[in-house]
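Researcher: Please predict.
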Amino acid sequence: MHHVTARASGDALLFGETADRRRFAQQLRGVISDYEWRCSAYCLMGSHFHLLVYTVEATLSAGMRRLLSDYAHWFNWKYDRQGHLFVGRFGSRHITDDEHLLEAHRYIALNPVRAAHCDHPAGWRWGSYRALAGLERPLDFLDVDSVHDLFDSAEAYRRFVLAGRRPGVRRLAGSDPRSSGG
């Protein structure tokens, strides 16, 4: 399991409009299918994105190279621009235990809230929170079942994520998501 991020170069935006995010999601769907990944969370911000992906084989680098390259070529063509869209290589953190995985889910869901783009994670259309919380139908590449198995339910997922919105709460050490208030 990997928490993957990539950021635009300089002051560039990765997603200038809705169609850009839709195109990225379409390309992500193809990479997930072709490389047999499981995606359990995503958040598409303006200048960067986050993914939680599980790879069966060691295909993270190949898949991300394809995703970033294909999207950058399309984006540069669409906006008649040249040069690098992404700053350097993608970043990834290998997730080795459930506690880290839980916190990665919380971090990704709350990213737009902490960036002051919305007051509640359900207010951000371009992430997986709404689908994982049972508020909308998920994109077909999102592995909702594994997340609900991890948290026991959509309600427990919501409670755990929302507990992180409290002032001063970044991480609930030793907490069980099934008993988190929120």
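Model: The first strand starts at residue 2 and ends at 7.
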